[in-house]
Every structure is written in structure tokens, then in C-alpha cells.
């Protein structure tokens, strides 16, 4: 055995060889480009601790963050036809679906689960932007309908967390038909008298914004989320004007009345629990106390003093009415009197009859 080759050389190589570092230990912020350790990022709910930028979350992390103690059940969604139009661009649509399913481990861009939030039974439908940009196809429409039926069956509020680039172009008109179908799902929940809340995350665009994402009883947006229909560049090219700063961001939309509130991710769960508690109360918790009725005012009287119960009506002296001023007859003149006194009438020359 050569001890130089088998013992000394490996020791020397180990001193000068760099150890491979796993790629998932450090993450780069897309806004400030700061490097963040993965444990710090998870503790901060994937929010940059330097600039406050809210990074995108997949559906699993959304559900774990919102439900009580990670105790929830994901339902199986109805099966839908695969590649109904046999679409192909650079790749076949079926190959794209297989790649997205293998990468994310999900069947499609939506997950529906039921559990409790603050002890309140709740149904949540969360989107995953990592699955083909969270695009809305037939499977997403079926998932929203299944979530609405489950909410009505359990008499629970429905919370939808969209994160999508819009309709899925590979399914053509069938993808656009999911817009009215998702509207029907929202109407089912509202007709049952149940709360429907939308949590707008980055990004929420296209046909998702034009349908169920803007039909909520309450719209809560994360800080800095992009929300709109068409892209900012497309709008600038169309209207040929420069858009204002912060256009299509959640803070801008709240200032213009399209979003009800903008919430930091760390406060999102507490805000949803408080809202669900307020909307889920059947009635006021305190006892209703009737207000005293206002006393009717007595009608005004022209008498000098109003009669009392012990004083008869005959004992009340009424003020004499002021005499009407004398009307001059033919041939008489009226002289004005000072201090508002009655005018004196002096006889004039009367024609003899």
C-alpha cells in the first residue's frame, strides 16, 4: 500500500477543495437583491427583512400559514379532459402539463382545502403561480366550483387566494369560459348567505381579475402586490401616456377604491380571523335596549295662559283681537299716525246726495 497516494494526497486535496454548498440555503431578494438565509426567510413568511418585499408563496405554504396548527384537509378535484384542443406551440400542451406536474407535485394550479381559522370552519382555494403561471384553465374552474359547493355544504365562508397570470392560452375559448363559471360559483356562496373573501396576492392579472377576484364581499391585498387586467407596458402603448408611479400596485388600488385594505403578510391571518368572526355572527351579542320615545310637543295656543287641570277653561281670559284699521270711505283721507298708532280719518268734502 502506498501511503502517500492513499493517505497523504486525499488529505491535501481536502484542504484545498471547495465544498459544494446546496443551492437552497440562500435566497436573493428580487427587489433589493439582498441575500437572505433560508431559515430567516421562512421565519419571516418569505418577506424580505431588508426592504419588506413580499415574495411569492405556493399553495401548500399558503394553506399552512392560514389554517389553525396546519390542520386542514385537501380535497380531490374533479378530473378534466387533458388537452381538449390538441394545442401545440414550441411544445405539446400535454408535455407542458407533465413538466409542471413533475416540478410542483400538483395536478394543476389550484388547491382547495377545508379546516378551521381561529376555530371558524373555513374553505380556502389557493393558487400556485409556479404551475404554469397560475393560469386559469378548465381544472381551475372546476376547483372553484368544488370549493363553492363545499362551502355551501359545510355552511362555511369561502376564502380565495388568487395568484395568476390570467387565462390559459393553451385551452383557448374553454379557458375563457371559466370566467362565467367562476362567477356562478361566487353567486352560489352569496345566495347561501355566506361570506366570500378574496386575498389578492402578487400577481393577480388577466381573466382572474376580470371575474371572481373582484367579486368578493371584502378585498384584502398583500403589500406591493401587482393587481390589474392588462400589463402596464401594454396600457402605455395603447393610451400613449406614462402611467403614474405605483400603478397597479395594491397601495395605489386602495387609494382609488378598488381594494378594501392592504395588509402585511404577518398580519394576514389575524385580519382574516377577525373579519370572519365579524361576518359570521348571527346577531348582536349585547342586549338591545329600546330608546325612550320623545314627548309630543303641545300645540301652540293663542290664549294668554294655557289652562291647567285644576283651572276650568272659562277662567282663561283670551286676549282681545286687535281691531282692523278703518277703511276710508269716499271723500275721506287717511293720515299716518306716529309710533304705529291707528291712522286718523278726517272727513273730506262729500258730495251732497
UniProtKB/TrEMBL annotation:
PANTHER family recorded: ACETYL-COENZYME A CARBOXYLASE CARBOXYL TRANSFERASE SUBUNIT BETA, CHLOROPLASTIC
Organism: Skermanella cutis
CoA carboxyltransferase N-terminal domain mapped to chain residues: 25-294
Pfam families: Carboxyl_trans, Zn_ribbon_ACC
Recorded metabolic or biological pathway in which this protein acts: Lipid metabolism; malonyl-CoA biosynthesis; malonyl-CoA from acetyl-CoA: step 1/1
PROSITE patterns: COA_CT_NTER
Coiled-coil blocks: none
Catalytic reaction equation(s): N(6)-carboxybiotinyl-L-lysyl-[protein] + acetyl-CoA = N(6)-biotinyl-L-lysyl-[protein] + malonyl-CoA
Ranges of Low complexity composition bias in the record: 297-310
Homology family: Belongs to the AccD/PCCB family.
Keywords noted in UniProt: ATP-binding, Cytoplasm, Fatty acid biosynthesis, Fatty acid metabolism, Ligase, Lipid biosynthesis, Lipid metabolism, Metal-binding, Nucleotide-binding, Transferase, Zinc, Zinc-finger
Residue spans, zinc finger C4-type: 29-51
Cofactor: Zn(2+)
Enzyme class, UniProt record, top EC level: transferase
GO molecular function terms listed in the Swiss-Prot or TrEMBL record: acetyl-CoA carboxylase activity
Subunit structure, interactors included: Acetyl-CoA carboxylase is a heterohexamer composed of biotin carboxyl carrier protein (AccB), biotin carboxylase (AccC) and two subunits each of ACCase subunit alpha (AccA) and ACCase subunit beta (AccD).
Residues involved in Zn(2+) binding: 29, 32, 48, 51
Protein name, UniProt field: Acetyl-coenzyme A carboxylase carboxyl transferase subunit beta
Role, per record: Component of the acetyl coenzyme A carboxylase (ACC) complex. Biotin carboxylase (BC) catalyzes the carboxylation of biotin on its carrier protein (BCCP) and then the CO(2) group is transferred by the transcarboxylase to acetyl-CoA to form malonyl-CoA.
Amino acid at each position: 500500500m502506498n501511503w502517500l497516494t492513499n493517505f497523504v494526497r486525499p488529505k491535501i486535496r481536502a484542504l484545498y477543495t471547495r465544498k459544494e454548498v446546496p443551492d437552497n440555503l440562500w435566497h436573493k431578494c428580487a427587489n433589493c437583491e439582498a441575500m437572505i438565509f433560508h431559515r430567516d426567510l421562512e421565519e419571516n413568511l418569505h418577506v424580505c427583512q431588508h426592504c419588506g418585499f413580499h415574495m411569492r408563496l405556493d399553495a401548500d405554504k399558503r394553506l399552512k400559514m392560514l389554517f389553525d396548527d396546519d390542520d386542514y384537509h385537501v380535497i380531490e378535484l374533479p378530473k378534466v379532459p387533458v388537452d381538449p384542443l390538441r394545442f401545440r406551440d414550441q411544445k405539446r400542451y400535454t408535455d407542458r402539463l407533465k413538466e409542471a406536474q413533475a416540478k410542483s407535485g400538483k395536478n394543476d394550479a389550484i388547491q382547495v382545502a377545508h379546516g378551521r381559522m381561529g376555530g371558524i370552519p373555513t374553505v380556502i382555494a389557493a393558487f400556485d403561480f409556479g404551475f404554469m403561471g397560475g393560469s386559469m384553465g378548465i381544472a381551475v374552474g372546476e376547483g372553484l366550483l368544488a370549493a363553492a359547493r363545499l362551502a355551501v355544504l359545510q355552511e362555511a365562508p369561502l376564502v380565495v387566494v388568487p395568484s395568476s397570470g390570467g387565462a390559459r392560452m393553451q385551452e383557448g375559448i374553454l379557458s375563457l369560459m371559466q370566467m362565467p363559471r367562476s362567477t356562478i360559483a361566487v353567486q352560489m356562496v352569496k345566495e347561501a348567505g355566506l361570506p366570500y373573501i378574496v386575498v389578492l396576492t402578487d400577481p393577480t392579472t388577466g381573466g382572474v381579475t376580470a371575474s371572481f377576484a373582484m367579486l368578493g364581499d371584502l378585498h384584502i391585498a398583500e403589500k406591493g402586490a401587482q393587481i390589474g387586467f392588462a400589463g402596464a407596458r401594454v396600457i402605455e402603448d395603447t393610451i400613449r401616456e406614462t402611467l403614474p408611479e405605483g400603478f397597479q400596485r395594491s397601495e395605489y388600488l386602495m387609494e382609488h377604491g378598488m381594494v378594501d385594505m392592504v395588509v402585511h403578510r404577518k398580519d394576514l391571518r389575524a385580519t382574516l380571523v377577525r373579519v370572519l368572526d365579524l361576518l359570521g355572527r348571527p346577531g348582536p351579542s349585547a342586549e338591545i335596549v329600546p330608546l325612550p320615545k320623545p314627548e309630543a310637543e303641545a300645540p301652540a295656543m293663542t290664549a294668554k295662559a294655557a289652562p291647567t287641570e285644576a283651572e276650568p277653561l272659562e277662567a282663561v281670559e283670551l286676549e282681545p283681537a286687535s281691531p282692523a284699521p278703518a277703511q276710508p270711505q269716499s271723500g275721506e283721507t287717511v293720515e299716518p299716525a306716529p309710533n304705529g298708532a291707528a291712522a286718523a280719518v278726517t272727513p273730506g268734502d262729500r258730495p251732497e246726495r
